[in-house]
């Protein structure tokens, strides 16, 4: 038998502690942390009543304090998230969409993607190769099955957000060694 817990009353110290506890476990943008704290406020207000606006002002103060202390840094978050998504084989358009959903400013997103472009001559090509390698597509597939799965492999990369030229370049590569040279 599950018992619903009564949410705590919202105080500035509670919000700060909740924010710190969240940041200990997860990397977050300031907009993401604001959403987490807003959900806590909404649960508390549903039980205890009160005005949301006065508590949201406390959330803004907590976020400003944590940003000043260096616990929240949207630029560092954007760069870290961009690198992680790129390593997973995500296209830059998917990376941009993910950061926008996380509430990262578009200027910070542009800076993070530009930093990625400084590391890789063709970031989308490198990400597509990583995804193809991970999923064993195109030249990473057994040679006898390559032709039969060409359209399926191309569709997988296209759904992952890569443009047609990039998809074709990866899937139609002569061998996996050629693609590995591009990554190095």
Automatic annotation (TrEMBL):
It is found in: Cytoplasm. It holds the Pfam family RecX_HTH2. It comes from the Bacteria. Transmembrane segments: none annotated. InterPro entries: RecX_HTH_2nd, Regulatory_RecX, WH-like_DNA-bd_sf. The keyword Cytoplasm applies. Residues 73-112 form the RecX second three-helical domain. Keywords: Cytoplasm. Modulates RecA activity. PANTHER family: REGULATORY PROTEIN RECX FAMILY PROTEIN. Belongs to the RecX family. This is Regulatory protein RecX. It comes from Magnetospirillum sulfuroxidans.
